[in-house]
Write a structure and sequence with these properties.
heterodimer; A: about 160 residues; Glutaredoxin; 4-stranded mixed β-sheet; elongated; B: about 575 residues; alpha/beta; Ubiquitin-like (UB roll); Rossmann fold; 5-stranded mixed β-sheet; 18 helices
Chain lengths: ~160, ~575
Amino acid sequence: MNEEKVKLPDSLLEYIGQWKNKKGNVIMVLHKVQELYGFIPRAVAMEVSTLINIPLAKIYGIITFYHLFKLKKPGKYRISVCLGTACYLSGGNDIMAELENILGIGVNHTTDDGIFSIEAVRCLGCCGLAPVLVINEKVYGKLKKEDLAAILGRYRNQEAAVKA
Amino acid sequence: MSIVNIKINERTYQVNEDLSILEAARLMQVKIPTLCSHPDLSQSAACGLCVVKLKGTSKMIRACATPVEEGMEITTHDAELFEIRKTVLELILSNHPNSCLTCQRNQECELQRLAAEFGIREESFEKKLRDKPADTSTTSLILDPVKCIGCGRCVEVCQKVQNVFALEFIGRGFKMRIAPAGNITLNESPCIKCGQCSAHCPVGAIVEKDETAAVWTGLRNEKLYPVVQIAPATRVALGEAFGLETGTLVTGKMYALLRRLGFKAVFDTSFGADLTIMEEASELVDLLKNHPDHLPLITSCCPSWVDYLEKFYPDLIEHFSTAKSPHEMLGVMAKTYFAEKQGLKAQDIFMTSIMPCTSKKYEITRTDEMFASGVQDIDVVLTTRELARMTKASGIDFLSLPDEDADNILGEYTGAGVIFGATGGVMEAALRTAYYFITGEKLANIDVQPVRGLTGIKRAEIDIKGQKVKTAVAHGIGNVHVLMEEIREARRSGKPMPYHFIEVMACYGGCISGGGQPYWVNNEVRKKRTAGVYQDDKNHKLRMSHENPFIQKLYGTYLGKPLGEKSKKLLHTDYKPRPLYYK
């Protein structure tokens, strides 16, 4: 275990304590981990493995099976591009391609500065707005690919302001 | 357990209700094809080949995962089922490379066999192969995801039988691969190299690392003096590769074969086993007499068990016998004692071990003590499967070979040496000699029946002149935690140790069904191979290790006494805690 041992936050330890001996505990605990970290860090997965006595292989079986779980740290702004049927037919694919082009990263990757990451999702439940993407909790509908540069620019400016 | 009446293909049968349709049909001489089901494992119903028709329902059901019920009327074979199964097979083949000619499983592959039986002559679906590199990180096994058909047998055996959890389904759908947790190699995972995954894989996706080429090279090198040794369990299994009845003893033919392959001296690991017993029984006697608080003593012949203990129970390392495994002992004796007699240097000798085991390939470089002769004591380990292939390539007609004897001074063995090949064998051999060491007398009933057989954990109490020696034997490494937790609990609570002596073998059944043995193992095969080993024991006049005259001579003229200075230096090793994950 060359990876440095991590100290889990008390809130997580408490949560694990509540779920430790209950059925279905692995998924619940992993949800909590993802909520706290934004993804499942390996060192945390190892700690969880020891604490709830489930082999690390089982945890990886689960987190690589369900798309919801992330193995890599997502960007500060997580861009979810809808590729569900309605969005796809209205050019969701073009939106995705343009986004990859502007950010210089592929789907499921994060920009080097850690600000943006892209993921593909299947239907966000607002097909009337197709094509749609969501940045963190904010929905952008009836998109044209020409809109993207401006939208991303706003987030970049926000970041620059925070830094300054 | 009650009996139910079922109909299979219009015939009426009475069968036990705890059988699946697949098992019931098999008993009735009806073979339903399958690629995921295995009698050692629980049913995953993954491959879909075993579909059958059940009267009263329009659905096809999977025979492997459906228990028989009273009144069932089942059709296992008809034109429609044939077409459906053929389509399933073609779909599997569309994700499987056509590299049979160059595959290690050529002619031993369950998928290849089914493709032949179904008369598949064309590819009905577009080929789409998984594009992932092979994992060659261990010195024992190769894991090739391109050939994997996703049946899950390896995962089942690694997790549920062996309790190792090195392998898991990673990802899903077409991107799914069988791999350790995360982006790491097998060698960085908890894998103990037992090779049960390779023994249960229906195709060539997990195979032993083939080192026959290294042996051919060694045999061709005129500067080297090639010698070889054969493990107890190999002699009851190699014959299967040549059509002999399972469990047939082919010891004499193996010696003859190896001489004809070019080995200048042919030794027997069973001699090494006799030597291991001399050391290990001495350790046991010393602990019983002088350090009862250090008990139990735990056997350490099985390198997968060693690896498992170092990773999962590092707190119990102090209970491990420091005696090396038989083939390592024989290796160092060949490169010192034998070499001196022949006027050779250690580095002149090229030692090959024929083993039932993939983990022995790992063991030979495990620690510095595996270089006790000054060079690597064992140069190459071949599994029984590799020797079978090498034999077929050599042009030697194995079945017509005469029976020959092994070479002295490292070839004669007692019955105790050969039973190392079966679960309980090390325990029994050690008890025979320990009894003599303590009492100076021969154990009245030399057949220690309670430690024999396929029960996962066997407990027995042996009376050594009033001293009750409590023993336990575990095999199939998933069974071992029961015993280890009992020891931990006794240590924690200060209560008396439940056992004095424990034997563990990682593979269920012991080495006779080791990860490197010929394929198609089930409990019937295990029983027949075990019977062969005990037959060999019975065939020997000398059945206790300390009676072996060549062992006596070795101690008398070279080693001194068991646990003496020279013995400790050459025949013992040590252990260290290892992490479950290196990354």
